[in-house]
Amino acid sequence: xxxxxxxxPRFLCLHGFRTSGEILKKQVHKWPESVLNKIDLxxxxxxxxxxxxxxxxxxxxxxxxxxxxxxxxxSEYTNFDECLKYIEDYMIEHGPFDGLLGFSQGAILSxxxxxxxxxxxxxxxxxxxxxxxxIGGAKFRSELVAEKAYSSxxxxxxxxxxxxxxxxxPYGVELIKSFVDPVVINHPKGHTIPRLDENGLxxxxxxxxxxxxxxxxxxxxxQYASQ
Length: 227
Prior knowledge:
Keywords: Hydrolase. The protein is an alpha/beta fold.
């Protein structure tokens, strides 16, 4: 999708645990048109049907899905490799994508995928992830995943939402330290996708403008190289 002659940055959007792509779409559409008109967002469902009670029952309609399963300490994962393959297959079929937008479990995945891709352990058959939008994120606690995901600084430009009342906030702060070029929007809410106040809106528009310019520069380089 393009704005005039410019292609919009295209994001694969990974929803939260036991929710759905449709639910994330509704959550994100709290943002104003001035933001939503500048980015192209795609909302898949996770591969596994919900295996327990969803926190959004009574708020959003089912069905609900989960990306993978985990133990209480969030240190051991089930179906994690299958999840990575599912995301890669989706990107092959529906891509290309410039970046990832993730909330909650989807944000934890999104924050790790660029480095897992750079290390050659995930998303090896698709173009490099160039940008991230992380909402209510955290780090993986499994040493096996963390060693590959956070052992060196993550180079992609990233925008992080931190909620003052979010139970994951301390872990979101830790995740931010892994990035070389993080932009942060602080908001007063909990573990949710917030509406944008004036400062948040300006920060987000500036981030989108920056990645749009990077996209245009890359497209220009590609056209030049092909001549």
